[in-house]
Write a structure and sequence with these properties.
The chain folds into 2 domains: 5-122, no CATH class; 132-299, no CATH class. The protein is 21% helix and 37% strand. It is built from 7 helices and 19 strands. It has helices spanning 48-51, 113-117, 141-154, 178-186, 203-206, 262-278, 291-299; strands spanning 5-8, 18-23, 28-33, 38-41, 69-77, 84-93, 99-106, 120-122, 132-138, 158-165, 170-176, 189-197, 207-211, 214-217, 228-231, 234-235, 241-248, 250-253, 256-259. Strand 5 (69-77) and strand 6 form a beta hairpin.
Length: 300
Amino acid sequence: MSTSLINNIITKKGENVFQVRLLKEDGVGLLTTQTDENYLILDSLDYWYDLIQNEYPKKKKCSCKNEWFTVQFEYIPREGTTDFREINIITTCSDCGKTTTAMTIDIDYSPTEELFTTPLHYCERPNIKYKYSELTGFWSGNDLKAVLSFFFHDLGLTAWCWYFKTADNRRYFDKVTYDRAIEIITAGHRYLNFYFTRNNINTDDVKKLEDEQGIYIQQGIWRRNEIIQLSAPYSMSGAGLLYYIHYCNQWLDKGEVKDKSETFEADTKKMKAWLAAKFISKRGKDCFDGEAAYKKFKNN
């Protein structure tokens, strides 16, 4: 049985005591040195800026009230491979010496060697705000069809779908018509993401890998591209199906905020206005629920 590997975290300047900010559910984190330099951990750079747009994570504090820690990353190997399946973030209080596993990250991709060889990424400006949106909705099947119809017929966007076909147990990524989209959500398939855009999507540009189970698409292709992503729903423990829409009207290029096109911003404004007119928003900002689906959520 393979044993775990321990990486004692230290910067190139030799600093090894940090303030720690973690988003545990998302598996990302930021370490700040005593000289006020910031480092994103592991692959956090891929997700950090989107995740902090609504709330910047608080500093971890020890029960003794100290907020400075030494940090270790414990890498758990995936049996039979050279990859890691899990990484534990272990913190030790610099004052009282208390050690805790502050976060555990599951790794579902390959290769993972860089996570060990380059555990930190210098980040000059970790708290950058830009135009990022996450919309949610509890929807029925008919609600979902109405949303798809709006994207296709009202906005006139082109759609690609990443989906799972049950007949041959494979994942596909195809450009789809409205009729094909309806077929995918109703018969013999399970969609993973819809991508709506006025531009072309080159499969080779967005493909992460392809194996015997089909195509795997990179996460977050809507961040840099003028794409609106409609994700597969989450089943909320009897409360119904919760759908997510992601897009951003600005994007980050090496720490610089850049605008997307006026056309894309107009499309997203029309979409949000339509959602507000079509659905109810009693759950709060950026929530757009079908009436029946919302009642099911409330009665759960």
